[in-house]
Amino acid sequence: MTASGATKVKLYAVHGVAGVLDLERADGSGLIEGQPVTGYANIEERALRKTGNVPFPLEDELVAAGARYRRGRLPFARHVEVGEGLVTGQNPFSSKAVARAVLELLGKGGADRRPGAAGRP
Description:
There is one protein chain. The chain is of the alpha/beta class and about 120 residues long. It has one domain (about 10-105): 3-Layer(aba) Sandwich (Rossmann fold). It has three helices and five strands. The protein has a three-stranded mixed beta sheet with strand order 1-5-4, with helices on one face. The protein has a two-stranded parallel sheet with strand order 2-3. A hairpin with a 3-residue loop joins strand 4 (about 80) and strand 5 (about 85-90). It starts with 9 loop residues before the first strand and ends in a 16-residue tail after the last helix.
């Protein structure tokens, strides 16, 4: 599959970023290759005992796809990564910060300046 080259903001939280693992840019490179991304961390999957309920460890697959995977310092803490038109949230607690980051990218304001709100530690 090929992702559109149009200027758009794509957002994914928790396991949602798994949906773009196989997407490619027009030049054939992976959509998330070289991009800063986040999603459920391996440690969070283990803590929730979900490793048997998902087809693969998301963190491992994102790294294997060439993404620059980053996670928050603490499991289940709010964490967001912003790349080139791509906003990802680590876990359900990151949802509001993902929305704020998207609004900021769209020039609508709404940025939360508190530490950790938009991917800052």
